[in-house]
Specification:
The protein is α/β, with parallel strands linked by helices. The chain is 36% helix and 18% strand.
């Protein structure tokens, strides 16, 4: 059982449930001014990295401390009640802020659309992390810096200094990104520079292709976005994702797992010297992890209800596998399997399967999108 801190962004996800017959090829076919669209009851759950990845880590058997900031308001009360239902706590109440929320449009046939208010996440900083939480942690996972102003402003100094301080204590670090609104303040930030400053202190980097492409290859991102639809549906991982992963290793991270939606996952790991720098509390086998590369196809989901939080849940499986001593290839395989299991539920956590069950299904011949 790993001892983990899951810190960063937390929000309330409000997901209107669209019936399957509402399938469409473009959001403009559905959302027309003046048109009434009848839908089902809303699914309301906590979202963001702290709730999705953090609670998934807990459900997978880890000892998890959650560190996220909410407001003293009705949405904050709902978030605390939901988290408490999983036997977790640790949320920080900011009486001056509002609780972050997202309206998630998960329309059958198209990728999700998020309407998001960052709320109290914008004021989260390293000062919100209690020293006691760091005392015996093996892994510190941080999620969604693009949705947390104090973390990314000033060239990402807050992100860099926080990760550097955690890593100096012998704790392994992992980092997840989030989609960026191009016209927002975060969208105008120099993310290549921010990542270059932070990644030397990131042992496990777990971004999605869309997020990483936006930050490191904006021209490619814009071209894929202009084509419409899900930009990860037909990726050539060697051509499209590998150069981004290699760039991250060159910036200093220890290992990178790029989540590529239906196209699967691509992983790369650093040199033996860099792997040896990973927090000693984790006890990672450098021989097993140094200089590894590979691709993992997406597993076929039995039922698809919503992809909300699937990437976060796959990260939880990946990190759990890391702490369990699995190889990079096995970690990617289990991450892809958990992501496929997750989409059977409207929320991120309802479809989670135990690690042993994932292994059983894989060994029994769980089909991938390739076969």
């Amino acid at each position: 059982m790993g001892r983990v801190i899951s810190a960063g962004h937390i929000c309330l996800d409000i997901t209107p449930v669209f019936p399957p017959e509402r399938r469409c090829g473009h959001i403009g076919d559905l959302l027309v001014p003046g048109k009434l669209i009848q839908i089902g009851a809303a699914s309301v759950h906590t979202g963001g990295s702290v709730a999705n990845t953090g609670l998934a880590l807990k459900l997978l058997g880890n000892d998890v401390t959650l560190l996220g900031k909410i407001g003293d308001d009705a949405f904050g009360d709902m978030a605390r009640q939901i988290v408490a239902g999983y036997g977790a706590g640790g949320l920080i109440v900011d009486p001056e802020g509002s609780t972050s929320y997202s309206v998630v449009l998960a329309v059958p046939g198209i990728d999700r659309i998020f309407l998001h208010n960052p709320g109290a996440n914008d004021t989260f900083s390293a000062g919100d992390i209690p020293e006691a939480a760091l005392a015996d942690a093996q892994l510190f996972h941080f999620g969604y810096p693009p949705l947390m102003r104090r973390i990314y402003e000033n060239g990402g100094a807050g992100l860099r200094d926080m990760l550097r301080g955690v890593k100096a204590r012998g704790i392994a670090t992992s980092l997840d990104l989030a989609a960026v609104d191009p016209v927002s303040e975060a969208g105008r930030a120099d993310w290549r520079a921010i990542l270059a400053a932070a990644l030397p202190y990131v042992d496990f980097f777990v971004p999605s292709f869309e997020e990483l492409c936006f930050m490191l290859d904006r021209a490619r991102y814009d071209a894929l976005a202009a084509a419409g639809g899900d930009m990860t549906a037909q990726l050539d991982l060697a051509r499209d994702a590998a150069p981004l992963a290699e760039a991250c290793l060159a910036m200093g991270c220890g290992a990178v797992l790029v989540k590529c939606g239906l196209s699967g996952m691509l992983y790369r790991t650093g040199s033996r010297e860099r792997i040896a720098e990973i927090g000693p509390r984790l006890g990672l086998n450098a021989d097993l992890w140094a200089d590894r590369a590979g691709e993992q196809p997406c597993f076929r989901a039995e039922t698809v209800r919503s992809g909300t939080g699937a990437g976060d849940v796959s990260i939880a499986a990946y990190l759990t596998a890391v702490m369990n001593g699995e190889s990079p290839a096995a970690c990617a395989r289990l991450a892809a399997a958990e992501g496929a299991a997750s989409v059977s539920s409207y929320d991120a956590l309802g479809g989670i399967l135990p690690m042993d069950e994932l292994k059983r299904r894989i060994d029994a011949g769980w089909k991938t999108m390739e076969g």
